[in-house]
Specification:
7-stranded mixed β-sheet, globular, DNA replication, 14% strand, transferase, 1101 residues, DNAPol_HHH, EC 2.7.7.7, DNA damage
Length: 1101
């Protein structure tokens, strides 16, 4: 006899379930269950993961590989979700059936219902039911009533789970009368010593309601060891500490997944209830593989999708090749059209074409990227801008007859205008046919430490200390060594238990968010494919599944992505048109411009797309790009794939003539010729497999995909043997064959497609050309497109001034919300900073000030009276020194602003004439010294046009080398000091950290090796002003300081100035002298914390 578990809660019932869906399915297989139903609360978010895990188990069983609860990786969190528990294949020949379902919680009923659709029609009703409830509620909620269940419950098995048997009869009878034969009463053990008595009561209620009783486990976890974690999740859900959990704690670990033997013992007096589980499972025949996805295929003027695609492609061929298309292009087009027709994908291309066409009709810059640039159809339709003459198009990288999944086209739009495109998609296809994919937000280290620490009673100081030692979005948990550095004892029982729970919860889903732009668009109703819910953002809806889920089911996704650089480029073109009368587009920017390449060879690339990181800027002088394809390589080569594959040094040595360029065969010279015999791109890896090892294009694509997953799935071995054998058969040496495979293995971590690199290189060139020839325009557009890129506004402004751009301060009589350009007397353009640079300033207030400006304001009170802005707005302007054009210093302006009445004065002190300012006697305020001015600039705008902090601190800090002198001083030991503007810890750098320090002369690059990092970890991670001593390394114009000692001097920044309230003597008088408690805890005043707020760095990993 067997057992089917019909009620299982996974961790996609957020903060309730204590196991991943993959763990539950794998454990069900180990226990020999005949079926398992994933039934999360009002949700189907976890079912695809369970389905994919079961599919993988079946594949292993078919290949006679032992089933194992191996270290499986959740595709969204990239977390290992179970440990190794091998079982022989013979023990689990029959894998469990997965039943799709959910647990319906109704607002007007004390009975919860497990809903299990028996067929696809019932599944569609279930998804529409869930959509109904979710669209009525706020994000993350679902409001359903019994009436909704009556309207949609046809074809579903409905298992009642009453909270109170005494109140359940009426509710169960109400549903049972509507769905005779579909309703059952679920009996779940309570594990409190009264199970048999409770089962008897359930049997009695079932008899009176004419609803058969069925056994359910009401499972929360796959294994009993998760009990403590389940209690922690309960505490998080109720916002309490573990010491307050009381009766809400699980009494034991019995709500784990159980096999037939355990359940038969529990239901020994009710064997029919156990047998009924298998009968119900047999009635539920629906499988997720039945979901057939159909592309939207609106017929235009009676033209079929394929006919329209062919027509548009041939029109594009004539437009892209006005002098006549090459034979290569024609052959590529015919090959792709044939493949698209065979796979029935024309509607997909047309959908993307229509989206791009709409964006361009609204003057929204957009560009396709990724593997789609391998398609000439995408090029001819205007989706991408990379021609087959620039790159080698490998269409199998984009779409394959044997891959069994749809192609994937990513299109970038201006990040400030993408919402227009999103709303057009909703309007064009309807919200019942279009929705954004979800993104699963998981617990990562910082959040896990904070949340679990709070539940376990750790103080805020302890949790802050632990999380402060975590780099970026690391999932490594808390390190005992770091704990000891913080004065904590890892052996402490409560603390060690907390650390263990933190490790367990890392990777757990926390909630659903919206994908960055992945749209699912259907021909029929999308809510019959998957539930749809409201997003947190207004006017957006999203489906419950993420991109990995829809990929697993073969559902089309169009990525409508945002890219800040496209916004910057469009704004640059607009400014050029306005001020210089130049009408430019990406296509008409002058190509192969020598001064632009000269600038890049000098590593002058702050703000330039894709080549502005310190690693890229260090590589540019070695690469010395002189043509567009050099930029394609530059974009791709400073990536984990080429670095870990050992490809960077061979390529640069060959480029610089230090190593001979050789090819092992004529065939491979055609594949690797453009990259000097070194494979750098995914397409080259595929072509090597085809040309050198005899793979078919489809097999080469499978090799590429296995390279992306081999570390976690262990699937590379068979490909390695096949690859090396194929190369040996074609007379390549064993050493060369092994070297080739090792190189392309580097793509396992991150291989860059040539098509993607080419698409990004085009934007890199355009942004570099703008920076080279129109630095004021480029800086203005870059500032107006923030937040984006690698550098903060302070560094963008500093770089502009180094390029002889005059930067003018914020002024109430000259500035607008955006940064603007003003014509100087000599005809050059100056950059005027806008109100958007003031921290906390609103665009609406800027609009009022600009609209009422007229011929200018005379004083702060005039701004208040004419623009109608609140006194608090005037304070922000004064703090930003925006009244300097009126002849007012910062202190004078703030003094005048403080005299302006609040818009709602107390009646007792109301003047007879409303609107008059309070009379203040003239006073002579002391002048602020330069250090104070600099600090207040950073407080209000995060940048200064005055002195750099290091310029003021340097006289008191002897022995430092200015950054611009590092190129000229003798090699040896040196000390530098500066503000930390970026920290980087690339995954390929084996723990090495790269710091960028800024002083008044420029920036310097600091390399911190792991041993030095371990010694000075807190300073490296937390310092804002660092003094670094080490030894210099130089290669050409690239200089690095290899750190040996790192000192945090952030406290010195407080020597520059004082808080504004102290500076001008403002007090907060009270009506009487009675002491009052503080309403809010005092803000941190430690100098290091002040420095973090004033001079923030941008940290990358």
């Amino acid at each position: 006899m067997s057992y089917a578990e019909l009620c299982v809660t996974s961790n996609f019932t957020f903060l309730t379930g204590a196991s991943h869906p993959e763990e539950l399915v794998t454990r069900a297989a180990e226990l020999g269950l005949s079926a398992v139903a994933i039934t999360d609360r009002n949700s189907l978010a976890g079912v695809v993961r369970a389905w994919s895990a079961l599919k993988e188990l079946k594949r292993e069983a078919d290949e006679a590989i032992k089933i194992r609860s191996q270290q499986r990786t959740d595709p969204s969190s990239r977390q290992e979700v179970s440990g190794a528990e091998p079982l022989p294949t013979a023990d689990v020949v029959s894998l469990p059936k997965l039943i799709v379902g959910c647990r319906l919680v109704l607002r007007d009923s004390s009975v919860e219902w497990v809903a299990l659709p028996q067929n696809r029609a019932a599944y569609q009703r279930l998804t529409r039911l869930l959509t109904l409830g979710k669209r009525k509620a706020e994000k993350g909620e679902c409001h359903l009533d019994q009436r909704d269940l009556l309207d949609h419950g046809t074809g579903m098995i409905l298992i009642a789970l009453p909270r109170d048997l005494r109140q359940a009869r009426a509710h169960i009878g109400y549903i049972q009368r509507r769905f005779p034969g579909q309703v059952f009463l679920g009996a779940a053990p309570r594990y409190d010593g009264s199970d048999q008595e409770y089962f008897s009561a359930c049997a009695d209620l079932a008899l009176r309601c004419s609803t058969p009783m069925v056994a359910v486990g009401d499972v929360l976890m796959h294994h009993g060891k998760r009990r403590q974690l389940a209690d922690v999740l309960t505490c998080m859900r109720h916002h309490i500490a573990i010491d307050q959990i009381g009766t809400r704690a699980l009494p034991n670990a019995e709500r784990r997944l159980k096999g037939h033997v355990d359940m038969a013992r529990l239901f020994r007096h009710h064997p029919a209830a156990l047998k009924r589980t298998v009968e119900i499972a047999a009635r539920c025949s629906f499988d997720l593989s039945e979901l057939s996805y159909e592309y939207p295929d609106e017929i235009a003027d009676g033209e079929s999708p394929m006919a329209r695609l062919e027509r548009l492609a041939r029109e594009g061929l004539a437009r892209r090749y006005p002098q006549g298309a090459t034979q290569k292009a024609k052959d590529q087009l015919e090959k792709e059209l044939s493949l698209v027709a065979k796979l029935n994908f024309p509607a997909y291309f047309l959908t993307v074409h229509d989206i791009v066409h709409y964006a361009r009709s609204q003057d929204i810059l957009c560009q396709g990227r990724g593997s789609a640039a391998n398609s000439i159809i995408c090029y001819l339709l205007g989706i991408t801008d990379v021609s087959p003459e620039v790159i080698t198009m490998v269409v199998e990288r984009f779409v394959s007859e044997y891959r069994g999944e749809p192609p994937d086209i990513d299109v970038d739009f201006e990040h400030e205008r993408r919402e227009e495109v999103i709303q057009w998609i909703y309007e064009r296809y309807g919200r019942h046919r279009a929705g954004l994919c979800a993104t699963v937000i998981h617990f990562r280290s910082r959040a896990a430490i904070r949340e679990v620490g709070k539940v376990m009673g750790l103080s805020q100081d302890v949790t802050a200390g632990l999380s402060g030692q975590i780099w970026g979005y690391s999932n490594g948990g808390a390190d005992p060594t770091r704990m000891r550095e913080l004065g904590l004892d890892p052996e402490d029982r409560r603390l060690s238990q907390t650390i263990h729970l933190i490790g367990e919860i890392i990777g757990f889903p926390r909630h659903l968010s919206q994908h960055v732009g992945g749209f699912v668009i259907t021909k029929g109703r999308l809510d019959e494919l998957c539930p749809i819910e409201n997003a947190a953002m207004d006017d957006r809806t999203l489906i419950e599944w993420d991109k990995d889920d829809i990929d697993a089911l073969g559902i089309l996704k169009v990525d409508v992505l945002s890219l800040g650089m496209l916004t910057c480029i469009r704004k640059s073109f607009d400014l050029l048109d306005l001020h210089e009368g130049q009408d430019l587009s990406i296509a008409t920017v002058p190509q192969e411009d020598t001064p632009t390449y000269d600038m890049l060879c000098r590593a002058d690339a702050v703000g330039v797309f894709q080549v502005e990181s310190r690693a890229q800027m260090n590589f540019l002088p070695r690469m010395k790009p002189r043509e567009f394809y050099d930029l394609v390589i530059e974009v791709a080569i400073v990536r984990p794939g080429p670095i870990q594959g050992g490809m960077v040094h061979p390529y640069i040595n060959r480029r610089q003539g230090r190593e001979e360029i050789t090819f092992p065969s004529k065939e491979l010279s055609e594949v690797l010729g453009k990259t000097l015999g070194v494979p750098l791109f995914q397409e080259q890896a595929m072509q090597i497999a085809v040309v050198g090892a005899g793979f078919t294009p489809e097999e080469a694509d499978r090799l590429r995909r296995s390279l992306a997953t081999f570390r976690k799935m262990g699937t590379i071995g068979t490909f390695r043997d096949r690859f090396i054998k194929g190369m040996l058969e074609r007379n390549y040496t064993p050493e060369f064959a092994s070297q080739c495979f090792s190189q392309i293995e580097g793509f396992g971590d991150y291989g860059f497609p040539e098509s993607h690199a080419a698409a990004f290189a085009m934007l890199a060139y355009v942004s570099a050309w703008l920076k080279c020839h129109h630095p004021a325009v480029f800086a203005c557009a870059l500032l107006n497109s923030q937040p984006m890129g690698f550098y903060a506004p302070a560094q963008i402004v500093r770089d502009a001034r180094e390029h002889q751009v005059e930067v003018r301060p914020i002024c109430v009589n000259a500035s607008t919300w955006d940064n603007t350009l003003e014509r100087r007397a000599d005809g050059a353009l100056a950059l005027r900073l806008g109100f958007r640079q003031i921290k906390g300033f609103r665009e609406e207030d800027a609009g009022w000030i600009e609209a009422a400006r007229g011929n200018g304001y005379q004083d702060p009170e005039t701004v208040w009276l004419r623009a109608g802005v609140a006194p608090g707005v005037l304070e922000r302007l004064a703090e930003a020194d925006a009244f300097i054009g009126m002849g007012l210093t910062r202190r004078d302006a703030l003094w005048q602003v403080k005299a302006i009445r609040s818009p709602e004065p107390l009646p007792l002190f109301n003047d007879p004439i409303d609107g008059e300012s309070i009379y203040e006697p003239d006073v002579q305020l002391p002048t602020m010294h330069l250090g104070e001015e600099v600090v207040e600039d950073y407080v209000s705008t995060r940048l200064t046009l005055r002195a750099h902090p290091m310029e003021l601190l340097r006289p008191a800090m002897p022995g430092l080398t200015p950054h611009d002198q590092l190129q000229h001083v003798p090699l040896g030991r040196a000390s530098v000091c500066g503000l930390v503007i970026t920290r980087q810890r690339p995954g390929t750098a084996s723990g090495v950290i790269f710091l960028t320090l800024e002083d008044e002369t420029g920036v310097s690059n600091v390399v911190v090796w792991p041993k030095v990092y371990e010694q000075f970890r807190r300073s490296v991670m937390g310092g804002r002003l660092l003094r670094v001593t080490g030894y210099l390394q130089r290669e050409g114009i690239v200089v690095h300081l290899i750190a040996q000692n790192v000192e945090d001097l952030s406290y010195r920044l407080t020597d520059l100035g004082h808080p504004m309230d102290d500076a001008i003597g403002i007090t907060q008088p009270q009506a009487d002298d009675a002491p009052r408690p503080q309403r809010h805890p005092p803000r941190a005043r430690h100098p290091r914390e002040q420095a973090k707020r004033l001079f923030p760095s941008r940290d990358f990993h």
